[in-house]
Amino acid sequence: MEKLHKMVATSAIHDGERDHKVDYTGVCHQGTRKEHLEKLKAWADNAPLETRVEWVHAIAGTGKTAMFRTFCIELEERSGLPPISFFVWRGDGRRNTLKFFPATIAAQLCRRFPALVPHIKKVINEDSFILQSAFKKQMEKLVIRPLLDCSQNIQDERHLIIVVDGLDELDAKDQGEFFDFIPHLLSRLSSLPISLLVSSRPDPQIVGAFKHPALASITRDWILGASDADIRKFLDDKFDNINLRHSYLQVEHGGKWPSHEKREIMVRQSSGLFIWPTVAIAHIDKVEKGLGHNKRLEQVLSSSDHKAWVGTPLDKLYRAILEAHAPEDPHIAIVYMFIKHPETVVM
Predict the structure, then answer these.
(1) Could you state, in order of their start, the residue ranges of all structural domains in the chain?
(2) Which CA distances in Å does 24 have to 27, 66, 217, 253, 278?
(3) What's the fold here for domain 2-223?
């Protein structure tokens, strides 16, 4: 089992240890995403039907990973059993590839079903190179066969869900291999109550893969969106916290800071992306270099005024923040130069 654990990407597990300095994805803000989480929990409470794949898709910044992590945590709290998960992330060498996927899934299955341990030990003892074998062979020997050999233990489950977040973070080759394997996996395990919950951006190649007859017939998809109400609650809670820590803001402005009108402008600027208010609040609450809360708030609010520069609301927010800091921070001078004079930068 030591050999197996050396090939486990612990940071890919929903509650695994991660470098929070670079991977800052957390969980849903309390009180938000209730409708989506209830939909997932209702699906989890039922035995799997013909559609054994649940595909949640949305553009970057919508909060897919935070929602999946929250779902995994709530699933574990309700059942007392750890869910099976793999959170892909391009910035982590053990999470941006299928190389560590089979061992990570197998190790979690062993934690969930101890009866699998001797079966997996036997596989590794009989084939010392199995952990360096091709993805499909590893999945067959480390996941599928042990599950079938211990099917009685699994059949007692009402619904075993394997969560895979961020398929778009894999390279094209790994994506293709994963999509080709899904129908085989679920066909081999058709006698067991197992489903896949996956998320990704709606990239053309991923959409095309899910439209293939082999996958389309077993997949239900839905689009994840962030409601204005959720973003409004996030902003209100964050500003309440800032007001609590900096009471002078309420005194200066004769009540709640910032005003309802300015908060509503921020809700509109968010354009349904949770990443927008997350970045905006982080900027506003970082008071330093002589820039107070009000100045930082105005920088955020003015970001949508960059009409001459084409870009999304998030692009414009980053631009406003960079422009505010570039004169004092030499580390981003080249970025600032590109923003102000893109024609002078040779790529």
Answers:
(1) 2-223, 228-344
(2) 10, 10, 36, 33, 11
(3) Rossmann fold (3.40.50)
